[in-house]
Each structure stands twice: as C-alpha cells, then as structure tokens.
Amino acid sequence: MKFRIETQSDYTEAYKSSIEQPEQFWEEIASHYSWRKKWTKALEWNFTDPDIKWFRDGQLNITENCLDRHLATRGSKTALIWEPNDPKEKSLRFTYNELHAQVCKMANVLKNLGVKKGDRVCIYLPMIPELSFAVLACARIGAVHSVVFAGFSAHSVADRINDSQCSFVITSDGLNRGAKQIPVKAVVDEALESCSSVMKVLVVNRLNWPVQMHDGIDVWYHEEIEKVNADCPAETMDSEDMLFILYTSGSTGKPKGVVHTCGGYMVYAGYSFANVFQYNENEIYWCTADIGWVTGHTYILYGPLLQGATSLMFEGVPTFPDPGRLWQVIDKHAVNIFYTAPTAIRSLMASGVDHVLAYSLHSLRVLGSVGEPINEEAWHWYHTHVGKGKCPVVDTWWQTETGGIMISALAGISELKPAHAGLPLPGIQPCLVDAEGNEISGNDVEGYLCVKFPWPSMIRTTYGDHERCRINYFATYKNMYFTGDGARRESNGMYRIIGRVDDVINVSGHRFGTAEIENAINQNKKVVESAVVGYPHDIKGQGIYAYVILSDMNLATNQTRDEIIESVVAEIGRIAKPDKIQFVSGLPKTRSGKIMRRILRKVAEGEIGSLGDTTTLLDPLVVDEIIKGRL
Ligand code: WT7
Known about the structure:
The chain is α/β, with parallel strands linked by helices. The strands form eight sheets. An eight-stranded mixed sheet has the order 12-11-8-6-7-14-15-24, sandwiched between helices. The chain has a seven-stranded mixed sheet with strand order 5-4-17-16-18-19-20, with helices on both faces. A five-stranded antiparallel sheet has the order 22-21-23-25-26. The termini are far apart. The model has no long low-confidence stretch (mean pLDDT 96).
C-alpha cells in the first residue's frame, strides 16, 4: 500500500483495501513512522464501552517523529515560519535543527520545574513560537498538554484546569490582537484563585508588560531557559498513552476534555495531512487556525511536522492592519497551500475584492476550508479571487473528537463540488442513519452522520468521565460513533454536511453548547431564565440569539443587555457574546416544562410562517409575544 495517494485510482485502491483489511492497511501506513517498539496488535475495539486500542504495545514518541527523524535529511529546512501580528515586526524562521533545540530546551525547563510524564499542563498562550515549543515540549517528556484558546475567560480556564487537575500552566504577559493588546497572565492569576492543583506557572514575555509574579509559583521563561541545554531525550510512550486533552462543547453541561492518544493520532495526523493537501517537499503551508483549537494541533503542528513540511503560524488577525493582511502574508512568504475557515472568507468578501486583487497570490496551489459548511458563494469567491480559478478547494469535514480530517477531497485528485466535503479518506467508514438508528443505504439520501468503524485518531475518552464519552458519542446509535451532524449523500456518493442536529451551535467555527451560554446568561442576577438558539448569520455562519426572562420587565433596557453580555464574557469569553438578546415574559414550553427550541429557532430564523403545531404548549400566547418582539 502506498502512503501517498497520487491518482484517483490510488484512492480507490487505498479505500478498498482500508475497508477490506483495515488492520493490515493501517499497519502499513504506521510502518512509515519510527517506533521504538513495534505493536503486537493493530486494533482492538468495541463501541459499546467504548474501548479502542490502536497499535497495542507499540512504543514511540511523537516528537521524535516530528523532529529528530528529519534532522539527517531536513535539518536545515525551515520547519516553522512565524509571522507576527504587526507587519512591521520581523518574522521568524526555525529550521528543523532549531525547532528541535527549542523544544528540547523548553522540555528541560519543564523538567526542572518538576513536570513529569503523565502530568497535565495547561497551555494558555497566544500564537507565538513558544506556544509551539510548549506543546511539543510536553509531548517530548510525556506530559499531557491541554491547550486553552487564549480568548477564553478566567472562569473557563479555571474549569479546564480543575477538570483535568493540571499541575502546571504556561502563559504569557499579554497578547497582540490587531490594534489591541490584551492581558493574559492576569486572566491566569484570576483563574488560579479557584485552582489548587497548580504548582508552577511559566510566563513568556511577549509584550514587556509589568505583571505580578508570585513568589514560588511564577517563573519567567526567559530566565529558566538560561539554565538548560538543548539535550533532552524523548520519553518512551505507549501507543495508547495520553498525548493531549482538548476541551470542546457538547449539547449538555460544561465543555468536556476530549482525549487523544499517541500512536493512532500520530499515524492519522501525518497520513491525512500528506494526502489531503498533497504536500510537496519545499512547499510552504499555512493554516490560519489558532493552536487553541484542534485544527491548529493537527494541521499547524503535528501533521505538517510529521511530514517534514514548512508550516507557517500567524499571530495576528485577517483584518489588521487592513483586510488584505492574509493575502499580503501569502505573497510575503510565497505560501503554496492555504487552509482557513469559511467565516474568514466571508468577512473578507464583505470588505471587497480589491484587497485581494492588490496581491499576486501566484504561489498558491491548494486552498482548504474547515470548521463549518462553506456556502457556495464563499466557495466561488475563494476559488475565483484567491485561487485564480486554478487551485483546488478542499472542504475538510472533521471534529475535535475525530482528531483529523475525515471527509474531504484530496487536492488535485478528487472531483470537486462546491459546498460538498466529498468522499471519506481511506480508513473512514461514514454512514447515515435514521432516527431509529437504522443505516440508510443507497445514494441521494439524508440522515444523521455516524461512523461505523474505528480510525486511528478517534477520541478515546472524555477526561475523568468515560461514561460521558459513551453517552455522548456511542449510546445514541448502537455500534456507531455519532457525530452530532446531519448530512446528505449525493448520487455520486459524495457527502454534503448540513450542520449540527444537537444543541450545539457553530459561531465562526467555534463550538458552543446552547446550555453553556444559557448558564452564563443566568449568572446575571436580573435573569430568571434564558433560552439560546443559533440563527443563520452572513459572516459567522451562525449567530447567537438569546431569549431572556427578567425578574422585572422594567429592567428590559440596553444597560441590562450590556450586563448580560458582560456575564457571558466573564463566564466563557468574548467569543461567545450573544448577537441578539430578546427580553420575553415567558418561553414556549410543553406541559412537561420542556422548552420547545424548534419554535425559538424558527422565530430567530425569521420563519414565522412555519412554526408547526403549537397547541401542545403550556401557554400558546407567549409565541405571539415572542414573534412580535423579534429582533
Ligand atoms: C463541527 C466540529 C475540526 C475542525 C474545526 C471544528 C462542523 C467542521 C466542517 C465542514 C461542514 C463542518 C461540524 C462538526 N464542521 N468542518 N468542512 N463542513 N461542517 O472542530 O469545534 O470540533 O467542530 O464543526 O458541525 O461537527 P469542532
């Protein structure tokens, strides 16, 4: 079996063999990596517990595969390009030799601070090179990284630290975001007031800001780094040892810690990167995600580095200093492969095509999209103006839980259809089921998207609560992993993702549970009850629409609105701000007290004509009031 798919028939052959003999297929792919000890069994699994083990008894270290393995042949090749927020600041480049040294030094710093194999380390950093060093340094010494996006609030950081009992935090004084500078260490300080597990905080100096350093706890990275050398042997890890935890929202409760393990994640990250983007040696690859999300984990760091690629990381935002920034960076670094989110494309579309036309973009060969369904208009704009009609656009469907891209075209190989993710990657067995869990066969059908066979980078558990993992993903439909998405399978077998079918909303590619936002709103003392739904938003994909009952209708003012937004910012972070807040005197509930979100969703979408049956409601009149007050 070839590792690299080069033609349509390679794909057909690889897919066929991956279904007929999955274990043999993945063993061959896995043999392209370096293992300290070979596995004894490729796969053991059941989706009932669930219990999934890939490459059992195999031993490895993923950083040896990302770094050491390349030094002989690619030591002086650039591994990482860092482009700062401010275009006037110098960009940085790290060769594989240099990145290896930086990671080893950071790993030695962590060891000096007492970090040991198995310890959980919370990384709360902006997109600076030290974030990459930190992630890989944890992996090098077998510590489990839990990266928390630096836009989350102190509450969210504390919840995540406490849930996985992190003993260390890596952070920075502050961060740059366009024209703004935002405190980071201060957020950690506030979070740590309610975290007792943390022993040390390593602080990176990004802005030369004065920060409060607590004796015995806080240490500066630039001081610690002086005390270590660049010699740090990689820890031996079992294939199923934990590599990282990444928190993501579900339809109920607090965000859960999705757990990925070393061996399977490595194999799938490298394989999917190489094949979806068709990376060629000497190409420059840029994924605009933040490393705080899974896209950054798999497709800024692990996937590209596993394949010896040059990966660009960007500190800034698409609109600073102007909406031409992404295109300027592409020209500046001669980027060949560019991977971004539909929300970024739509917001740049809205700023006008002149910003794109000002740049040549001739280096581009492949474009990618991720995070939410890409609408046809955005797809065509991206294809025509950014790709000049000559670059394939791969629409990659996957999730935090899947670890890597599951359904996507392979650049330049597969047939493309706007707004269609396409066919599954080799080894991936998606299926559609009806509400009873019966598999829907044939094409031109629609249903709930599930996966019926394990793949190497799938979620293993949710940290500290295996039952939650079982209930969330494996209990809805027997013997299937349930994605939470609805999808269509077209006549040619291509998949079109429709969107979430659970109480999860996707705002600019960020995932929130409606319950999570309601909890945050309800922290406000004036609020009695709230219900949150998503509605179509031109740029964000989905916007957040909140229906709020106040203790006193006289409080229904813009000031209260601002205060509610403040509650959400404090509880979750600025990324979860409601777009619309409608004050209501009641919510449409069934006689058993269940909120009928279907009705709230229709009103938010403006589809008032098709509310369906409202006669079973406890108080049908509230619907009229809600419609009248619609924002
Ligand atoms: C949800 C997962 C893993 C990438 C970042 C998001 C939606 C993701 C697509 C796509 C349509 C997509 C799904 C999925 N989604 N990619 N190409 N087309 N929808 O990861 O935060 O775990 O969210 O994002 O609804 O379930 P995530």
